[in-house]
């Protein structure tokens, strides 16, 4: 999957937004050189994979010097960890926004599922690399995955409890997040995006979530196989 100018602009907007928020929290200033390394590294990692990517590949893509690179990052894994943290922080931001806007449990299910897949789609094939790496217990990405899942499960569980009076075990939501992870890998299987798989995964995930959370109020047709 090749990145066009519009794709790169969308990624740049996300990266800059998160880095600016971090800079405000830390009382510092956002570095554009650092941002460009992160932005262009996503495409390199997606195309070459982690093992075949070198620091030189990242330097060439971002058009920065080795000295500039090591001013901000220790190595290529440090770059990937920062990209994953940006992905996580932006995802949690969108989840919180949906929680504030939703007026029903069904709206929470539909909107957060859409946000999850839309954001994964915007990141492109690099999402496969990051998610596979994050699921390795010894990876630097693993603690960020754990933190994100814990926060997301707590937020959604609390909001569902507020709207329904039911106190779901947070593990129920964690289980659905694990399903979503596998769906994310499925829609980019073999490095190629499938719109049909995306539609199927969204439909089935919404059906599963409604069946678990709403019980008899769920829409059974969401789980039925489509012709063809």
From TrEMBL:
Domain of life: Bacteria
One Gene Ontology molecular-function label: DNA binding
InterPro entries xrefs: DNA-bd_HTH_TetR-type_CS, Homeodomain-like_sf, HTH-type_Tx_Regulator, HTH_TetR
Residues annotated as domain HTH tetR-type: 31-91
DNA-binding region: 54-73
Gene3D superfamilies tied to this protein: Tetracycline Repressor, domain 2
Record's keyword terms, sorted: DNA-binding
Keyword Ribonucleoprotein attached: no
Name this protein carries in UniProt: TetR/AcrR family transcriptional regulator
Organism from which the protein derives: Alloalcanivorax marinus
């Amino acid at each position: 999957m090749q990145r066009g100018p519009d794709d790169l602009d969308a990624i740049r907007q996300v990266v800059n937004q998160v880095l600016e928020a971090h800079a405000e929290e830390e009382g510092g200033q956002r570095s554009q050189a650092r941002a460009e390394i992160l932005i262009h590294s996503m495409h390199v990692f997606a195309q070459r994979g982690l093992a075949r990517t070198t620091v030189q590949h990242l330097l060439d893509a971002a058009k920065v010097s080795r000295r500039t690179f090591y001013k901000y990052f220790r190595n290529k894994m440090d770059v990937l960890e920062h990209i994953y943290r940006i992905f996580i922080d932006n995802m949690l931001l969108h989840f919180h926004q949906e929680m504030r806007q939703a007026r029903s449990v069904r709206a929470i299910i539909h909107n957060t599922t859409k946000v999850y897949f839309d954001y994964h789609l915007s990141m492109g094939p690099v999402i496969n690399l990051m998610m596979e790496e994050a699921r390795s217990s010894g990876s630097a990405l693993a603690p960020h995955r754990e933190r994100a899942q814990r926060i997301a499960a707590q937020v959604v569980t609390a909001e569902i409890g507020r709207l329904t009076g039911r106190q779901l075990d947070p593990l129920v939501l964690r289980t659905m997040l694990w399903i979503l992870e596998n769906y994310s890998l499925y829609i980019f299987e073999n490095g190629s995006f499938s719109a049909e798989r995306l539609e199927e995964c969204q439909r089935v995930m919404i059906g599963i979530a409604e069946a678990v959370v709403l019980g008899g109020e769920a829409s059974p047709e969401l789980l039925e196989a489509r012709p063809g």
